[in-house]
């Protein structure tokens, strides 16, 4: 009797542990087929070819876009935010990619030019919006739902996206410029009014830096969500696109870190491309980033397809 009681007690104690270990196993079993389906769909939809198109369009668009951002920031009286906007874009990129590209961007932005917001604005917006159009094509293929908008309306929407992105980037950059000033004021005020808390506030400066990166990631996730919702044809709910957005951001953060290690330890693009090494490194990085963006859309499409099959099976039963 005592042995059976002990066995029963052991089984009772072990049951929660089995459930805890079963949940990750079940999650992996359900997640792995979705990833496989996403990869199959990615290959079927010519994901690498579309990613190359997106990468090249993005590289061609980044200079006109930042020129427009700089001119717009000066027009709004927030010229100091333009440099922060450039840093905001490139600070999350691997150093081997961001440094040469940011150097060339700074050369372009410091070149005097007139009429960017008058005569040249349409050309600048048109070139920048071409990158949005490439993203529209990628999402339309992934969701099997190309846009039904007329060409002119789709292009106007892309230009609106560029302008919205420019305003959003300037706003976030302005807050980043303003934040150290406010933080310094808070430290000075606390040192005078509450000196016992001053040391603790200074110690939180690292937390503020982490919060800045977190804000950047939130802005990126919000932009990705808007693209998934509005660029391709058809209608989707926010909860339908969030899994792919989360997957893209997670893979991009991990991929950017690994790509930085790869550039630092293994890659030697200079031996292959000579003076074009910097630009070729950027193209490779943008190509991989575009592929991860498309993979996120394919992941969402795989989830929707699986959900649809379950619903059809339930109706048939």
TrEMBL record:
The cellular location(s) given in this protein's UniProt record come to: Cell membrane
Q: Per its UniProt record, what InterPro entries does this chain match?
A: Virul_fac_BrkB (IPR017039)
GO cellular component term, pick one? plasma membrane
Q: Which Pfam families match?
A: Virul_fac_BrkB
What membrane topology does the UniProt entry give?
Multi-pass membrane protein
Q: Which sequence ranges are marked TM in the entry?
A: 54-78, 116-139, 159-182, 210-230, 242-264, 276-305
Would the keyword Membrane turn up in this protein's UniProt record? yes
The primary site where this protein sits is membrane
Query: Which key words are in the record?
Result: Cell membrane, Membrane, Transmembrane, Transmembrane helix
Q: Does the keyword Transmembrane apply?
A: yes
Recorded hits in PANTHER family, A to Z, give: INNER MEMBRANE PROTEIN YHJD, UPF0761 MEMBRANE PROTEIN YIHY
Which protein are we looking at? YihY/virulence factor BrkB family protein
């Amino acid at each position: 009797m005592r042995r059976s009681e002990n066995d029963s007690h052991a089984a009772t104690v072990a049951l929660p542990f089995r459930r805890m270990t079963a949940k990750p196993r079940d999650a992996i079993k359900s997640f792995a087929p979705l990833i496989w389906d996403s990869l199959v769909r990615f290959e079927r939809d010519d994901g690498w070819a579309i990613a190359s198109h997106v990468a090249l369009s993005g590289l061609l668009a980044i200079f006109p876009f930042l020129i427009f951002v700089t001119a717009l920031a000066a027009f709004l009286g927030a010229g100091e935010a333009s440099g922060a906007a450039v840093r905001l874009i490139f600070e999350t990129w691997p150093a081997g990619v961001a440094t040469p590209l940011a150097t060339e961007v700074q050369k372009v932005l410091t070149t005097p030019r007139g009429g960017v917001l008058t005569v040249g604005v349409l050309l600048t917006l048109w070139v920048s919006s071409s990158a949005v159009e490439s993203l529209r094509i990628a999402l339309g293929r992934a969701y099997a739902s190309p846009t039904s908008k007329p060409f002119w309306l789709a292009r106007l929407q892309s230009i609106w996206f560029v302008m919205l992105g420019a305003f959003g980037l300037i706003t976030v950059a302005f807050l980043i410029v303003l934040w150290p000033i406010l933080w310094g004021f808070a430290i000075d005020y606390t040192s005078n009014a509450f000196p016992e808390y001053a040391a603790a506030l200074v110690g939180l400066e690292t937390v503020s830096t982490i919060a800045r990166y977190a804000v950047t990631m939130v802005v990126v996730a919000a932009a990705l969500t808007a693209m998934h919702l509005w660029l391709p044809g058809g209608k989707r709910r926010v909860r339908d696109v969030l899994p792919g957005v989360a997957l893209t951001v997670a893979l991009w953060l991990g991929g950017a870190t690994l790509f930085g290690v790869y550039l630092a330890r293994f890659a030697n693009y200079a031996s292959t491309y000579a003076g074009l090494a910097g630009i070729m490194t950027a193209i490779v990085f943008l190509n991989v980033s575009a592929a991860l963006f498309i993979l996120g859309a394919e992941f969402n499409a795989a989830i929707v397809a699986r959900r649809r099959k379950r619903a059809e099976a339930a109706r048939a039963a």
